[in-house]
Specification:
6 strands, four-stranded mixed beta sheet, 156 residues
Length: 156
């Protein structure tokens, strides 16, 4: 991630940390002003942008967002849809094309005890009824995003 470069370029921005991010190497040298978490206050933009912490993995948690006015879900790693052609490892990982999903190596980190928390996160995301989807890895969606999200998270 390019969080350090971004925060250096925009020094007046408020930088939020997702749960566990501050301990990761990619966050080294980044000054966090606020955090997402169960015991943290709601961000000042909560009336416009909802957030869900994807919980249950023993490796990482991430925050997904929903911009209410545009009905747009913003998802980082939970759903990946790399365009064809791509390498065999991405195909084996289940993250290619319209049937892209959560990387299989991340999926297994929810077993055996994290599926209940993960289902709650998924249900909250599906409850958004998103029309559009912006993702960090792959092809975004301009319409019927709710159907794409549900299909991508079938494995939960």
């Amino acid at each position: 991630i390019f969080l350090k470069e971004w925060s250096n370029k925009f020094p007046d921005a408020i930088v939020y940390a997702s749960p566990g991010l501050e301990k990761r190497e990619v966050a080294k040298g980044v000054k966090f002003d606020a955090r997402f978490g169960k015991d943290e206050p709601e961000p000042p933009f909560a009336n416009e942008i909802e957030s869900v912490i994807v919980c249950g993995s023993y490796v990482m948690e991430e925050v997904e967002f929903f911009h209410k006015a545009s009905k747009t879900a913003i998802i980082c790693d939970l759903i990946q849809r790399f365009p064809e052609p791509t390498g065999i490892m991405l195909k084996l990982g289940g993250v290619v094309g319209e049937n892209g999903s959560t990387p299989r190596d991340w999926r297994i980190t929810f077993w055996p005890f994290g599926k209940g928390e993960l289902r709650k996160s998924r249900d909250a995301i599906l409850g958004w009824k998103a029309e559009k989807l912006i993702i960090a890895h792959g092809t975004c969606v301009e319409s019927n995003a709710s159907d794409v999200i549900e299909k991508a998270l079938y494995w939960i």
